[in-house]
Amino acid sequence: MKHQFFYFVTALLMLIPFLAAPADAVDLSYAAAEYTYVTELTAPKKVEAELLTDGMEATACEFSAGDTLKLKCESPIGGIYLKFDMKQTRWVASAGEAAIQFGTNGFLHEYADVSPLDSGEITLTFQEDTQICELRIFSAGKPPENVQLWQPPYDKADIALFTSHSDDETLFLLGLIPTAAAQGKRLQVIYFCQHNDKPLRLHEQLNGLWTSGCTHYPFIGRFPDLYSESIDEARNKYAANGIDEDQIIACQVEMLRRFKPNVICGHDINGEYGHGTHCLNAETLMKAVEIAPHPEMYEDTAQKYGVWDVPKTYIHLLEDNPITLDFDTPLDYFGGRTAYQVSVEGYGCHYTQHWTWFTNWLKGTDEEPITAASEIEEYSPCNYGLWRSTVGEDTGIGDLFENIAPEEYPAETQPPAPETMAWTTTTTTTTSTTTTTTSTTTTSTTTTTTVTTTQTTAAQTTAVTEPKAGEYDADTPSNDLPWMLGGGAVCIGALLLVRHLHRKKKQKAHFQH
User: Fold this and answer.
1) What's the start-to-end Cα distance of the chain, in Å?
2) What angle do CA 212, 216, 218 make, to 5 degrees?
3) What residue spans of 292-321 are helical by DSSP H?
4) Under a CB-based contact definition with an 8 Å cutoff, are residues 99 and 92 in contact?
5) CA 261 to CA 248: how far, in whole Å?
6) SS3 for 42?
7) Could you give the CA distance from residue 175 to residue 187 in angstroms, rounded to a whole number?
């Protein structure tokens, strides 16, 4: 019995290296190469596999729970970039006996570091029904700038931007994100609305944020996008949808307590051009600021996050205690572009909104172009007012963080040069009885599609680069630990086994003697 237990423990120790942990950090010391490809896809008729590589977020490929997507490349695959259609779902990347769990952070655009698998043949197993808009494959290293390496929302923010809709942060509240990024501030974006009824706006939202310099995932609002032209109309429309003002204030209080920002910026109390949701967002935020420090109010979030008294609250276009922000000075962080110019690029990602009057408001016309934030007179994005402060009044220097000690974070790196490589993919449909990567193939009608695509990719170089501000911390856990522990366990197990066999040999020799 003792011997059986010994063998069991030894075998268990030797299995540790094959249980790979999720990848938490990408090696940024060199640039990754994107594998351009001729793709041969074998899939059921329901899976239009060419949609994975058409570069369009308006199209999606549907997979059922248990379906697999097999990737094969001549070189090891280091990263897989997936854009989900409506919401992220759980999936596993596996190679041989090793597997890594992904799809657990809620990121609609997910970059998966699969370099620990060290394989050119990787199988993706979808554990839930899902829709994928885009698939891109890379070698190990830092992917191109247009691949979004989202980090979780901050635990503690320097500044929080309470924006209403997807695009407001590049319009009426423009400049704040790139300025905070250039200053190394931890900026958390908090949306009032969600756009689940318009999936394209979900992708535009993330693309615009990333382009503007945001690296930590936003809080996506809990309330639907309901157009209104006054605060009373907004209240009535939300009430008709089962959402009262108390629920909205509760959410605002929760955000303040959760992220504990030193500075917050909110919409004009008149809704800029009169949008009722902007008005309601501003009014409930101001109420929430005064409630958040009191533990007896909304006790559930007070117990979960603690209370928070926001040091400085700025409201757009407020005339009291005015401050004029500079969004027109070139920023080294963005290669000499201004915060206004970066915000315009961010707005450029919101294709579905370009038909609106917002575009001319932001950029002007061909006859009268706007080239600086200071040139926008109506609803000026540069003008705010300090509505409430616990750290003293501003002195007119135009600094949101006046009287608050600054913190420093790593600067942004330059994008890598292009290069191309080749890879192939094969898809099959499977049925899985568990959530592991082991599955049983079922018979189904299949089609074969060949797609030829050429893409610009990032070059593999040996130059050392640094992440964007807030992108990765020195304390980020490494995936090397489970493998180091596993390697040590194998060595210990082997030594114990040799020791055991040596004893058996001695015992056998003793009895023979």
Assistant:
1) 26
2) 85
3) 299-305
4) yes
5) 19
6) strand
7) 12
Query: What are the backbone angles phi and psi of residue 288, rounded to the nearest 5°?
Result: -65, -35
Q: How far is CA 482 from the centre of its chain?
A: 25
Q: How far apart are alpha carbons 46 and 62 in whole angstroms?
A: 7
Give CA–CA dist 500/309, Å, rounded. 64
Strands 98-102, 61-63: pairing is unpaired
Alpha-carbon gap, residue 403 to 413, rounded angstroms? 30
The first and second tokens of residue 118, run together, are: 């060290």
Q: Which helix (H) or strand (E) holds 249?
A: helix 245-259
The contacts of residue 510 (CB under 8 Å, 6+ apart) are: none
Mean pLDDT by 10 residues, the chain (513 residues): 48 44 62 68 61 89 90 90 95 96 97 95 94 93 94 97 96 98 97 92 97 97 94 97 97 98 98 97 98 98 98 97 98 98 98 97 97 98 98 96 72 34 38 34 36 34 30 36 48 54 48 39
How many beta carbons lie within 10 A of that of residue 493, not counting itself?
18
Query: What is the pLDDT, as a whole number, of residue 324?
Result: 98
Burial 201-229 (b: 16+ CB within 10 A, else e): bbbbbbbbbbbbbbbbbbbbbebebbebe
Check: CB of residue 197 under 8 Å from CB of residue 225.
Answer: yes
CA neighbor of 23 nearest in space, from 487, 476, 490? 476
On the CB side of 5, how many CA atoms lie within 13 Å of its CA? 2
> DSSP strand E in 326-443: where?
383-389, 421-428, 430-431, 440-441
**Calpha distance 426→123 (Å, rounded):** 9
- CA pair distance 427, 66, nearest whole angstrom: 12
**Alpha-carbon span 53 to 50, nearest angstrom:** 6
C-beta separation of 408 from 184 below 8 A:
yes
Neighbours of 253 (CB within 10 A): 27
Output the pTM of the full model. Answer: 0.77
